[in-house]
């Protein structure tokens, strides 16, 4: 999908109060940008990293700027978690996720006490698919999730496991934003309970898919599937 245009460049100074980031522009002025990411942004929100940010269309918005991409090494990382479902939705409709080509796609499907990101159907088959955005690497080749303890994420895993008994096919989909990653693994050192539950539910029949994105300052799209290590 196309990213907002134009994007403006700067250097990250600090991220604070979860949703705020101070950025220094090339002319030395400092702006505060909205940061749409509820995680810790470990390895991403690092002072001195180059960033790209956009201007809001709404002139009445309190913060006119939005942080879009952070450069780690030579690659851009999309930390805008509100865009994750849009990326996966586009990929499902375009057939880029080969496991679900030609499925009917519905978003925000109510199940249990949650709204599962996608409900897919093909004939009599019913699939629940929950998306998690991954911006952390546990080593040079392995992306991992979560980057902070996630009680909500643990709950989603248990709901996907419960759905198996109701005749659903359940899938947890990790959208990996780190181009160097060749593998995905749970971040056991950060949230050991999430890792334990992920192994539990996959043993029960919940499926795991991990796909990398391909990100440039102009666009981001779902690209290559990577291997999962549990």
Write the layout of secondary structure elements.
Layout: E1 7-16, E2 20-24, E3 30-34, E4 50-55, E5 65-72, E6 75-78, H1 84-94, E7 104-111, E8 114-122, E9 125-134, E10 136-139, E11 142-145, H2 151-164, E12 169-176, E13 183-186, H3 192-204, E14 207-215, E15 220-225, E16 227-228
Parallel strand pairs: 9-12, 11-13, 12-14, 13-16
Antiparallel strand pairs: 1-2, 1-4, 2-3, 4-5, 5-6, 7-8, 8-9, 10-11, 14-15
CATH architecture of the largest domain: 3-Layer(aba) Sandwich
Using the CA coordinates, give the radius of gyration.
18 Å
How many domains make up the coordinates?
2
Helical segment count: 3
Which fold name is given in CATH as the topology of the largest domain? Trna Endonuclease, Chain: A, domain 1
The topology string of helices and strands comes to: EEEEEEHEEEEEHEEHEEE
Tell me the name of the CATH class of the largest domain.
Alpha Beta
* Large-scale geometry: globular
Number of strands: 16
Q: Indicate the low-confidence ranges by residue numbers.
A: none
Category from helices, strands and their pairing: alpha+beta
Task: Name the beta content range.
Answer: 35-45%
Report the biggest beta sheet as strand number plus sense, adding barrel if it closes: 6 strands, antiparallel
- Rounded mean pLDDT is 96
* Helix percent band: 10-25%
Instruction: Output the strand order for the largest sheet.
Output: 3-2-1-4-5-6
Q: Report how far apart the termini are.
A: 31 Å
């Amino acid at each position: 999908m196309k990213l907002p245009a134009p994007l403006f460049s700067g250097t990250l100074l600090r991220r604070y109060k979860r949703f705020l980031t101070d950025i220094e522009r090339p002319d030395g002025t400092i702006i505060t940008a909205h940061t749409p990411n509820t995680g810790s942004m470990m390895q991403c929100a690092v002072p001195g990293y180059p960033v790209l940010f956009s201007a809001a269309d709404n002139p009445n918005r309190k913060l006119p700027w939005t942080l879009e991409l952070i450069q780690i090494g030579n690659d851009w990382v999309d930390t805008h978690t509100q865009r994750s479902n849009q990326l996966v939705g586009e990929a499902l409709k375009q057939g880029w996720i080969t496991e679900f080509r030609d499925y009917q796609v519905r978003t925000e499907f109510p199940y249990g006490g949650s709204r599962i990101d996608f409900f897919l159907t093909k004939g009599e088959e019913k699939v629940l698919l929950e998306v998690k955005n991954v911006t952390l690497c546990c080593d040079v080749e392995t992306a991992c999730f979560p980057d902070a303890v996630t009680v909500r994420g643990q709950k989603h895993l248990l709901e996907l496991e419960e759905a198996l008994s109701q005749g659903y096919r359940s899938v947890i989909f990790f959208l990996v934003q780190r181009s160097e990653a060749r593998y995905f693994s749970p971040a056991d050192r950060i949230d050991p309970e999430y890792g334990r539950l992920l192994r539990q539910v996959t043993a029960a029949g919940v499926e795991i898919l991990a796909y990398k994105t391909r990100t440039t300052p102009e666009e981001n799209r779902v690209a290559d599937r990577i291997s999962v290590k549990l």
